[in-house]
Amino acid sequence: MSAEATNPEARPEALPELRRRGRTRLDLRRLGRAALLGPTPRDRLPDAIGHVAEAHRAHHPDADLSLLRRAYLLAETSHRGQMRKSGEPYITHPLAVTLILAELGAETTTLTASLLHDTVEDTDVTLDQVREEFGDEVCFIVDGVTKVEKIDYGAAAEPETFRKMLVATGNDVRVMSIKLADRLHNMRTLGVMRPEKQARIAKVTRDVLIPLAERLGVQALKTELEDLVFAILHPEEYEHTRALIAAHAGERDPLPGIADSVRAVLREAGIAAEVVVRPRHFVSVHRISLKRGELRGSDFGRLLVLVGENADCYAVLGELHTCFTPVISEFKDFIASPKFNLYQSLHTAFATPEGYVAEVIVRTRQMHRVAEAGVVALGNPYTSPQQAESADPIAAADCEEERVDPTRPGWLSRLLDWQQSAPDPDTFWDVLRSELAQDREITVFRADGGTLGLPAGASCIDAAYAQYGEAAHGCIGARVNGRLTSLSSRLSDGDTVQLLLAHDASGPTADWLDHAKTPAARIAVSSWLESHPDGARPADAAPRPPLSVIGLRSGGGNAVADLPDATVRLAGCCTPVPPDAVEGFVVRGGAVTVHRVRCATVAQMRAVGRTPVAVHWRATADCRVTLLAESFGRPHLLADLTEAIAREGVEVVSATVEPPVEQRVRHSYTLQLPDATGLPALMRAMRDVPGVYDVSRA
Known about the structure:
- 42% of the residues lie in helices and 16% in strands.
- The protein is an alpha+beta fold.
- Strands 1, 2, 3, 4, 5 and 6 form a 6-stranded mixed beta sheet that branches. It has a 5-stranded mixed beta sheet with strand order 8-7-11-9-10. Strands 12-20-21-19-22 form a 5-stranded antiparallel beta sheet, covered by helices on one side.
- A hairpin with a 2-residue loop joins strand 9 and strand 10 (483-485).
- The termini are far apart.
C-alpha cells in the first residue's frame, strides 16, 4: 500500500509508550538512507534488514535468510528514488512493515511478501517477475495486498480493494496479516497528512481493519491501532486519558506488590509460573474509567500469569480463589470455550486486603503467543507436517496437497459467501462494516450433525440462509432443540436447529428483514422482495371460523358390540381402527360408543360405574379414523393434503381447518380407509406434504 509520510513530532508518536516500554525504537530513516548507499556484498545480509533478520531468527532459529536478502534487494532497487512525504526513502516503509511481522513471529514466506508488498503497485515490477523469482505463494500474497487501479474503479476503488483482499484472505490468511501491519505503520506515520485525510483513514481503520485484527486474533496490532485511532478521532478523550496515565505514573503503583504476593502463593503451591504486570493501553484505560468512574492504582494494569500446561491454568485459578477474595462476576473461562478468534485464557479478579481489585489473566505460553499474534503465530498453515519439520519456507509452493486453510473461521466463510451477492460496491462496503460490527459469534448444530457459525443474536432465518442459500426462500419453520418454533426465534450458542423447507412456498415476507442479522440473509431476502413486489405472503388475517368439509358416511364401521340390536358408533375422541384393543359403553339412547382401551374416556366411564361392553372387529378390513395434521400455513396446503389422502385411496368423511396461529395451522380429518393396514402409509404420505411437520391419531 502506498504508505503515508511520517512526522516525528506528531501526537501519535507519544502514544503507546506504556506498552512499548523496553523496546528499542529503530531509526528507520537512518536505515533507509543506508539502503541507498549501494549494493551489499553477496555473502551477507544488507545492514538495513539486519534487525528484521534478528527478530525473525528469534522465532525461527533455522530460517533460511537468503530469500529475505533477495526480496530486500529487489524492493530496494525498485523503490530507489521514491520518497515518502516526510522525505524518508520509501524503502523504510516495507522494512518497518516486515519488522512488525517478524516481531510477531511470521514465517519467512510472509516476510518475503511483506518486503515486496508495494513493488507491483508502486514500481515497474510485475507479478510475473515476482512469481518467477519467488514462487507462486509469494506472488499470490503480493497480488492479494495490491490495490486495484483507481483509474478503473474510481470512487469504488477502496471497497473493491478490500473485497479483493478479503477474497484473497479466504485462500491465504497471510494476505490480511500484511495488510494489518501495513496499516499500523501508516497510522504510526500519519502526522503530516491533512486533518480531514487523517480522520478518513482513521475511520476506515476503526470500522474495518480493527475488527479484522480482532477476528484474526492479532491483539498486538489491534490494541495499537485502537490507540492511534483514538488519538485522531477523539482528541479530547485521548488527552484526558493521557493525563490520567501521566498522573498515575507519579504515584505508587500497587500492582508490583500484588504480583509479588501472587508469586509467593504460587511458589508455595509448587506451581511454576511467570507473573508480570501488563499496563493497559490507552483505549482500555478509557473504557475502564467509563465503567468504574474514578480510577485507583490497580486499574491501570492487569496481572498476566504464564504457565506451562492447560491444567496449570486451573491450578493457578484455584490458588488465587483460595488465597484471595475472588470477584466472581469477573470470571471467564476462554480455555474451555475459546473465542472464535483463537483466543484462550482464564480471566478473573480478586480483592486485596488493602481494598484494591486486581484483574488477572492466566494462560499458557503458547496461548500467550497466539493471543498476541493470532493467525500470524500459526506460521504457514499450508505446509504438511513433514515440510513444517524441515522449516523449508518455499516447500509449500511445491506441495501437491489441496490448500485448505485451517484458520478460516465462520465469519470469514460467511463474508466470502455474501460478498458474491453484493456486486454493488456501496452495498458491499456498508454491509461489510455492519458484519464486522458483530463482535461475538455462536455455533449451532444442524440436524445432520454439521455446524453453523453465526453472529450472536442470529435467528432461524439466518441459519436457513447459511445452510441452504437461496433455497431458504422456501423455509416455513424450524425446530430448535426438538421443539417447534417460529423463524424469528433467536438462536443461542450450542442450539440444534432443524429447518423445514417447502418447495412451493411463496417466499419470504418483508418482516423477515426485522429478524435477519447476517448480511447473506438480508441481501437474499431484499433481492427476493425486489424481484417479487407482489409475491410476498400476506400478513395473517383476522381469525376465521373453522372450515369444515362434511362427508356422508357415519356409524360404527366394522366394529361389532356383544349387545343384540345395539347401534355401534366409533368414538370421535380416539377413532379406533383395527386392530386396536377397544371397549364399548352404552350411552344415552342405547347406542354403544367404541373407544380405544387407552382412551381417557374409558377411565372416566369406569370411574362413574359404567359397565363396559365387549366389542370385536368384523373380518372386513375397512375402518374409520380421525387424524390430526399440524403444519405451517401456506397457499394450497389444504388442496395438497386432500390430494395426498386421495392418492392413498382414502375417503374424506369430514375435515376441519382451524384458523392459523403464528403461521401454524391445525387440520382434523375423519377418514374412511378401505384397509386398516394402510394407515401407516397414509400418515407418512400426509407428513411428506411440504409444510406439514406432524400427523397423529386423534
